[in-house]
Design goal:
The complex is a heterodimer of chains A (397) and B (315). Chain A is of the alpha/beta class and 397 residues long. Helices cover 43% and strands 14% of the residues of chain A. Chain A has 18 helices and eleven strands. Chain A has a five-stranded mixed beta sheet with strand order 2-1-3-11-6. A four-stranded mixed beta sheet of chain A has the order 8-9-7-10, sandwiched between helices. A two-stranded antiparallel sheet of chain A has the order 4-5. In chain A, strand 4 and strand 5 form a beta hairpin. In chain A, helix 2 packs antiparallel against helix 14, helix 8 crosses helix 9 and helix 8 crosses helix 17. Chain A is globular. Chain B has 315 residues and is an all-alpha fold. A two-stranded antiparallel ribbon of chain B has the order 1-2. In chain B, helix 4 packs across helix 7 and helix 4 runs antiparallel to helix 9. The longest helix of chain B is centred in the C-terminal third of the chain and has 37 residues. The radius of gyration of chain B is 25 Å and the shape is globular. Chains A and B meet through helix 3, helix 10 and helix 17 of A and helix 11 of B.
Chain lengths: 397, 315
């Protein structure tokens, strides 16, 4: 047992399972690993190999190892956007028969879609994530159910405050733009991974450009990511922010009153008469094709992703569950006073494009929609389509 | 160039190869055997990757689609060379290179003169000036990034810098910060190379010129600079080659080359590492390699004529 613990990388003993996943600072993944190792009673021993928190860096590490057929990876904590890429390359194993039933059991439809590609199930959904609209109850009115981006920006301008978003040229910008486009009824690629850029991209660019060129643009908008947005909101410079639920426990540290004055609502609408499509994030657990212990790895993944551990991840890590029933447990209800809107958001969320060339597509979106104050809505559609086509053909853009 | 010509003359001096003795033969063989490990190691770590990159650059090869691997000839190159992205990245890289190397040359020269003339505390002065060069580029880049960070950096709080016009929120401002970081970090290296050149200028020439009534400025431009020309060119050569391949400063200060700060090396990284399109990425790498060779040829040519001139003057 001790020898297995010592070898965190590079295979280890015959029963050790290496799980490559991001370093969850709340310690909930550590707790899940420890619990599974106890439950397994020596059948297998999971080693938690910690990856950087930056999603791009995680992917670069994983993809290079898998391309080199590295057999030291057994389980992969996959960002929801990797499924198509890893499945198409033959780097992960499909979940079939009983395994498939376990993976899909009682899961929310949004997260479930992120593990499906070409009619097969490629991972077990573990944790999910989505963004809510957070606002200052003491400064602005409670947003109506059909609150739009335009109304929010106008309101912020009139109240001399700002709206925090993620508009740095990175994955977070793709997340935002994708939700804006989906909120206008559009999509970036269709089910066959064909490029489908239409006027909804123009609508997204109009909102982005309007915010960036208005007085409601926060300082450093073009370089802000999730954490700068959180800081901006906590500093009091903004009364609105769209962000993940991690901002809620963080607000408690600013001062008790601050968290009390923090309200939440669903992601704002792109168009008045169309429900919003919030972003969808999260981690799925996949089994590597090059693992020498696939059966044990499947067992370990099923154990890790069980509802009990999802509840721990929600409580300690601020990561919303993928299993429906977990939302009704007392732990989650206590940790998330906004559990209902969170669950509804995840159900209604717009997945990011499902295509094996996802990273190309995402880079192209980021380049086209950056910098926010320089975006020209009038030619954005042709620009984006051109870059998408080049990305899909594997060319330089 | 100079070294090459001297070895030429040396190898030309021994009378004829026929007259080689057995002992000389054995020594030559031994020499080769002693060199062999180093030569083989060099070939393995530099020659092989270059050849492999060249081979990959003729392939359609994306790690995610191993089945689609095929020979495509020069199409990767034509794709890169016809894209506007490549050319705008070349321009960005050239701007960073030219501006930072020019500033470094002027500052480096001033610092070299200070180090040369320092009367007391020569050791501590030189050591202090070299500190930035001893700091890892990534660490230095983080320091600059945090200083200029629009939300938490101290520069944002300075007077004269408005909230809406933060340097890191614009392309021009970002390039400026990147150039600043580059200059801060590598000026000591430039100064060190120039100091070596300064040490070669004989004091007698200065004294003679002084006697003839030349002013300090005249002496600097008429004596110091011409005699230092080879040293200046070597310093420029090293720094230009280095600056053209700029990667780490941009990678940290504007991750991914955001806001139009993408250099050619960042492009190569994005294509090869992020998009795992190894074929296309290798074409980018080979093109960067060719650019670097062109820069080197330019400076070596200039260096060759300058040293030849000098020798002519001396004779």
């Amino acid at each position: 047992m001790l020898s297995a613990c010592g070898s965190s990388e590079g295979g280890g003993g015959a029963r050790s399972i290496n799980w490559y996943v991001f370093n969850e600072p709340g310690g909930s993944y550590d707790a899940a690993v420890a619990d599974c190792n106890k439950q397994a009673g020596g059948k297998y021993h999971i080693n938690y190999v910690k990856l950087p928190t930056d999603a791009n860096q995680q992917r670069e590490l994983i993809v290079r190892r898998l391309a080199a057929k590295d057999d030291s990876i057994d389980l992969i904590g996959m960002d929801v956007i990797w499924t198509a890429e890893l499945a198409q390359a033959g780097w992960i194993e499909p979940w079939e028969g009983e395994r498939k039933a376990v993976a899909e059991k009682d899961k929310l439809s949004g997260p479930l879609k992120t593990v499906q590609y070409k009619g097969k199930t490629w991972a077990i959904p573990f944790t999910s994530n989505t963004q809510l609209l957070w606002y200052r109850k003491d400064k602005v009115d409670k947003p109506p159910a059909d609150f739009t981006w335009d109304e929010m920006i106008d309101d912020a301008v009139s109240k001399n405050t700002a709206v925090e978003v993620q508009a740095r040229q990175y994955e977070g910008l793709t997340v935002w733009i994708n939700s804006l486009i989906a909120g206008a009824g559009g999509q970036i690629v269709d089910q066959n991974a064909d490029v489908k850029v239409d006027d909804s991209a123009k609508k997204a660019a109009e909102i982005e450009s309007k915010l960036a060129n208005s007085k409601a643009a926060p300082p450093g908008m073009s370089t802000n990511a999730e954490d700068q947005a959180r800081q901006g909101f906590e500093s009091g410079r903004s009364d609105y922010q769209v962000n993940y639920p991690f901002v809620y426990p963080s607000a408690a540290m600013v001062g008790k009153d601050f968290q009390k004055n923090m309200g939440w609502a669903r992601f704002p609408r792109t168009e008045k008469d169309r429900p919003s499509r919030p972003p969808l994030g999260g981690i799925n657990i996949g089994v590597s094709h090059y693992s020498k212990k696939r059966d044990l790895a499947f067992d370990a993944a099923e154990c890790l992703a069980q509802p009990k551990h999802q509840a721990i991840a929600a409580e300690k890590g601020g990561l919303p569950p993928t299993t429906q029933s977990v939302y009704d447990t007392p732990t989650v209800k206590k940790a998330y006073p906004f559990a209902d809107v969170l669950r509804a958001s995840i159900e209604a969320a717009a997945p990011r494009p499902v295509t094996p060339a996802y990273s190309d597509i995402s880079l192209a979106i980021q380049k086209t929609f950056s910098p926010p104050d320089g975006v020209d809505p009038s030619n954005i559609v042709s620009k984006l389509r051109d870059r998408m086509d080049k990305a899909a053909e594997g060319k330089i853009f | 160039m100079e070294a090459a010509s001297t070895t030429e003359t040396r190898t030309a001096t021994p009378p004829a190869k026929k007259g080689i003795t057995d002992r000389a033969k054995a020594e030559r063989k031994l020499a080769w055997m002693l060199c062999a490990p180093a030569v083989i190691a060099m070939l393995l770590v530099t020659g092989w990757p270059i050849l492999y990159a060249l081979y990959l650059s003729f392939q359609r090869f994306d790690l995610r689609f191993p089945d689609q691997k095929e020979f495509v000839g020069l199409s990767n190159y034509s794709d890169v060379l016809t894209s506007s992205t490549w050319w705008s990245d070349v321009w960005t890289t050239l701007i960073i290179t030219v501006v930072s190397v020019s500033i470094e040359l002027v500052l480096g020269m001033l610092i070299a003169l200070v180090m040369h003339r320092a009367i007391f505390g020569r050791g501590p002065v030189r050591a202090a000036i070299l500190i930035p060069y001893g700091i890892i580029t990534v660490v230095a880049a983080f320091a600059w990034k945090y200083a200029f960070d629009p939300t938490s950096g101290f520069v944002a709080g300075l007077p004269l810098i408005s909230d809406t016009a933060q340097p890191l929120n614009t392309k021009a401002g970002s390039l400026l910060v990147i150039i600043l970081a580059e200059v801060w970090k590598t000026t000591p290296f430039m100064a060190l190379l120039l100091l070596a050149g300064l040490a070669l200028v004989p004091d007698e020439l200065h004294e003679a010129a002084k006697v003839d009534g030349a002013s300090t400025l005249q002496r600097f431009f008429r004596i110091t600079i011409p005699l230092m020309k080879p040293a200046i060119l070597v310093a420029l050569l090293f720094r230009t080659l280095d600056a053209f391949r700029i990667f780490d400063n941009i990678y940290i200060i504007q991750p991914g080359g955001a806001l139009g700060t993408e250099s050619v090396s960042i492009l190569g990284y994005n294509v090869t590492i992020n998009r795992v399109n190894v074929g296309l990425g290798s074409a980018v790498s080979i093109l960067i390699f060719i650019c670097v060779i062109l820069i080197a040829i330019f400076f070596v040519k200039a260096l060759g004529t300058s040293t030849a001139q000098q020798r002519g003057e001396e004779a």
